[in-house]
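Recap quiz, item 2
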Amino acid sequence: MAAEPLIRVVDLKRSYALGDVTVHALRGVSLDIAPGSFIAVIGASGSGKSTLMNILGLLDRPTSGQYHLDGRDVSGFDRDRRAELRNKKIGFVFQNFSLLPRTTALENVELPLLYNGRGHRPAERHAKAMSLLQAVGLADRAHHTPNQLSGGQQQRVAIARSLVNDPELILADEPTGNLDSRTSVEIMEILQRLNRERGITVLLITHEHDIAEYATRVVTVRDGRILTDEAVARQRDAAAELAALPPVGSEA
Amino acid sequence: MGIRETFRLALRAIRRNKVRSALTMLGVIIGVASVIAMIALGSGARAVIDEQIQSQGTTLIYLSSGSFGGPGRAHGGSGSVTTLTLEDAQAIVREIPTIGLWTPGVRGRAQVIAGNNNWNTQFEGGNEDFLAVRNFAVAEGANFTARDVLVADKVCLLGATVAKALFPDQDPIGQVIRVRNMPFRVLGVLAEKGQGQWGQDQDDFVVAPWTTIQKKLLGINYIHQVSFTARTSELVEPTAVAITRLMRARHRSPGPDQDDFSVRTVEEMAATRVQMASTMTGLLMSVASVSLLVGGIGIMNIMLVSVTERTREIGVRMAVGAKTGDVLKQFLAEAVALSAVGGFAGILLGIGVSEAITTSLGWPVLITTSSILVAFAFSAGVGVFFGWYPARKAANLDPIEALRYE
């Protein structure tokens, strides 16, 4: 493991007040994630993995504990500083794709560029977004709106969007949860490729063991604690699996 | 996000819900249109008053017998008091150097006969400067002279209305009219002036030397009124004050309650009318403002609906890096765009309504650039004011909950 981890969390706790009851979603999680790794966090619903993902994704703040992102302690950052870091360092891929409705794929991909404070000109934005749509194989669908795209295509648009500000980390929260198995493999292929070719750290949240095996390391979470943390014995190779699958005439 | 980008997004969001946006704007449109129309009516009324002041002469000061004021005391109205004399007028002119022209005034009503035509009209007596003081001009013929006044000659000038009534198809000049069996020779006809500030016909009267009216027609030895002009409009006030002071001294009046005369300036009289017009405009304006307010509430309502509907969108924007200020700006821009577009349409409608009022009712309207700018700024302000709360609500959403919102 590299000397300087991209993510280091120490004794992370998060509790919510639900009426009179205090719910302890995270009860002390410590974890180091090296840059360039592909790590899966696996756990049943209610295990605390979503809470962990929200905190690692800077959408939420821990009740106690430390979170170092890229060497900086970010656990005390306020809303706007977290938004800025999300924009620059983290790309999100969600189970429900979370694309803006009635907005073209191109504009969806451009969205994070509007908030990075660099004031790109429209032409610049289009060019950048277009090159990423090309990378996920959707250049010909650039002007389609989400409801004109299949689930797999929507998720690929979401991946392109997550990449547009050149993040160091992609947080994929159940990215294949709404997709059929073949499309799931296609999505995992893209994530593996980004991890290998661009050295982007990928953090995959899932409850499916077979999806977790595309990562190099699997962390199991239960009851707000890390249960196991082990390397994957035989990493699945999505590209090879795709090649072995019978070819489809055209993707639905 | 830049301001242009923000407004481009806002306009697009508005276009997405065309019917809803149009209905929301309707409130602002009606509000702004009525504000514009009301201001136009008010300015129109004021412009007419200004014009009428000009037609009377802005430097005019009236000294009338009798007083108007004083609560609880019996007073004679103007003209029923017999203490104002030519000597008063002469003393004033002698002692107050800021007076320009002046004329004594006596008046009465009489039936005027010329051939088969007759007309009941006002008689005004003045000196040779009467026309200059009261801002009348001779259209045809000539004014009477100082000598005519001195010898109380039976000559007269006809107001345009009287000339038309008595001599519908004849040149009145040189003709003789009869008043209480006294023949008056017509020297000239006055130029038309139109309606006065109270709506009266300013051309329905006959002018003759005051000496003639006083002695031969009315048989009195006092005068009703003296009209002065101040040398400049700045001197109107001090001159009026000086006249009052001198008159109090001459008539031994200790104060306004005891005065047997009154001094009024045209400006003062017009001020009353401007006051009335302003009150009316203010009243109508406040009604118009209420509709603008209601329009603003409509915008707030629809923005709240929009924030709820687009909770997911807000969550996505926040996840990819939109800051509190970005979301606030976006929704504020939508509210402002709604009200500004509505305001623009309202201005056009308001101009249309004003034009319609002029053509159908004949009321004067005046649309000023400032009223348009004010209305536009006001409607944009309504957007900011009523858009703030929904935008604040959107900006303060929790990103996790917003993302999960179904």
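Chain A has eight helices and ten strands.
Chain A touches chain B through 26 residues (CB under 8 Å).
End of item.
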